[in-house]
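Troubleshooting log. The previous structure file for this entry was overwritten by mistake, so regenerating from the original sequence record. Sequence copied from the archived sheet and checked twice against the printout by T.R.
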Amino acid sequence: MRIAALLLALLLAGCDQGQSDAEKAVAEISPLEQAAIDAGVIPDVRNVTLSGAYERRSDLGTDSFCAVGNDEKGYQIGMIAVFGPATQCEGLGEAERDGENVRITLNSEKKCSFTARFDGVELKLPGDLPDGCASYCSRRAGFEGVSFYRIGEGDAVARSTGGRNFENLCPGG
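Regenerated output below.
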């Protein structure tokens, strides 16, 4: 009997090996989180696309992020963080999404790659970024720790996002 139980446990453990850690994390939703999704309080990140426009407003200006594309083929993105009338960070690049992780690569200046978090409503950039990311910023500005909230869904809304140095942060797809 013990041998059968051990074999069953090993067989079940082997079934999960095909999933990545990100897939397991997204697939394992707590009952409380599922109840919030069912009630419409929070979105189900498994069914939300990154495509759209995002903003965060402050007294210093409006930070914007946009993404055109989809999870299968990737996204063309643009973002700007504003720290006053002449101080900002602004760049264009690409993104790939894996569950709540979004791998962003800015490539309109020096290469800058990092992983942000996306919960279906808010995109949060990490507080520590590679040195190459500074090439997108004026003096005394940085993308570190910036976050953006979804204001509109889809490619059409994303393409209407303007920047300072770029007329459209997300012109293509």
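The chain is about 20% helix and 35% strand. Archived copy saved in two places this time.
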